[in-house]
Design a protein that fits this description.
single chain, 8 strands, 258 residues, oxygen-dependent coproporphyrinogen oxidase, alpha+beta
Length: 258
């Protein structure tokens, strides 16, 4: 099957994709900005494979949505559905480095043993008080409100902590009716608040000095290198699509700022 999508802004075609609401909301909220498609080659716009036994093969589909605006270098979403067992949304919004903005990140993953929920405005300069001052405002209370209604996701590795903010919303929730209720009643409104907060920052952001831009660029590159090297989806993607395609996808599409 060949995808009918010819650019990254065209709609995702995965039927019954669990996380469709969140991409739909992202697209809707970006409508206030003048945007264009982010350049993504056809081989990464749509990818299909099969797994499982030869007598009962299961289909896996991965599609990539993306755009860019005056202030956003790349907003892209990796959308994957593998039968009934795995569903993934990996959304990262990367600002241009001449605006003092964090990354927006949402990673929602369904696995056979539950859902993993990660939502954050991730700093490019974790130790810079000017860059991270947004944590101390409304985002702090937004995080406290929603995290208190969710089970914890557990500890994160020490080396990873500089790439997350104090407003990191992180949870492991069960499959079934209980998890569906949490997604509907907690994750959806939490996502909306985080994204609204971020896009308000984007709307108000002003161009910074060349010296400051260089600092941000170095921080952004460090973040992207870390995400590419430590991507937890690497093993799954290799199993579905092979090592060569996976490495090209991770390094040239998902985390392409080097």
């Amino acid at each position: 099957m060949q995808s009918k999508r010819s650019n990254s802004l065209e709609p995702i075609s995965i039927i019954n994709w669990r996380w469709a609401y969140f991409l739909d909301e992202t697209i809707k909220k970006f409508s206030i900005f003048e945007s264009s498609s982010y350049p993504i080659k056809n081989d990464f716009l749509f990818k299909e494979s099969f797994f499982g036994s030869s007598s009962n093969p299961k289909k896996v589909i991965l599609e990539t949505w993306g755009l860019k605006t005056e202030k956003i270098r790349q907003a892209r979403c990796a959308c994957l559905q593998a039968g009934e067992i795995t569903s993934v949304m990996n959304l990262v919004i990367s600002p241009f480095n001449n605006y003092d903005l964090p990354f927006f990140g949402a990673d929602f993953v369904t696995l056979p043993n539950g859902h993993l929920i990660a939502l954050d405005l991730q700093p490019a300069l974790a130790d810079d008080l000017v860059h991270t001052e947004y944590f101390s405002g409304n985002l702090k209370s937004i995080h406290a409100n929603w995290q208190s209604k969710l089970p914890s996701g557990g500890d994160i590795p020490l080396e990873a902590r500089e790439y997350f903010s104090p407003a990191f919303l992180w949870s492991r929730i069960p499959l079934g009716e209980e998890g569906d209720k949490l997604i509907s009643q907690i994750i959806k409104p939490a996502f909306d608040e985080y994204l609204n907060f971020f896009l308000d920052m984007v709307r108000d952001a002003m161009i910074i000095s060349n010296e400051r831009s260089l600092q941000l660029l170095n921080g952004q590159k460090k973040y992207m290198r870390y995400r590419a090297e430590k991507d937890p989806a690497r093993g799954m993607l290799r199993g579905f699509f092979g090592e060569l395609w996976t490495e090209r996808y991770i390094n040239n599409i998902l985390f392409d700022l080097k």
